[in-house]
Amino acid sequence: MGISKTEIFTEQQNEIALFAKAFGHPARVAILQHLFKIDTCVCGDLVNEIGLAQPTISQHLKELKSLGLIKGSVDGTRVCYCIDPKNWTKMKRIMCGFLDQDISIKEECC
User: Structure pTM?
Assistant: First the structure.
C-alpha cells in the first residue's frame, strides 16, 4: 500500500479531508443527527436507533471521536457520547469557508 503523502498538503487541506471523512458514511451522519436530535449525551444503545450491529456502531463512534466531532466519557461499563461543541464549531468554520467558495464560469471554459 502506498504512502498517502499528507505532509505535502497544508494543514487546512488535511483538516478539510479529515472532517469530510466524518460525512463519508451514512451511519456516521445518522449518529451525528441523532446526537443533535436528543441534544444530550447518549449512554444507551444506538443499535435500535441506527439499525446497525453494535460492533459497527462502535467503529463509527470511534471514528467520529478520533475526528474530534464527538467526545465520550466512561460511566461504569457504559461509554456516553455527545457532540464536542468546540470541535463542531471549528469544523463548521473550516468547512463553510471551503464550501462557500464560488467561481465565475466563463462562456468558453472547457
Answer: 0.84
Q: Specify the residue for cell string 464549531.
A: 89
Cα(95)–Cα(55) distance, rounded to whole angstroms? 29
Query: What is the sign, positive or negative, of the torsion defined by CA atoms of 67, 20, 13, 96?
Result: negative
Beta strands in 1-110 (DSSP E): 70-75, 78-83
CB atoms within 10 A of CB 42: 19
Of 63, 18, 81, 21, the closest CA to residue 55 belongs to 63
**Cα–Cα distances in Å, from 40 out to 14, 23, 79, 105?**
30, 21, 14, 44
pLDDT in tens, 23-37: 999 999 999 999 999
Q: Each residue of 58-93: pLDDT tens digit?
A: 999 999 999 999 998 877 777 899 999 999 999 999
Task: Note whether 55 and 39 are within 8 A (CB).
Answer: no
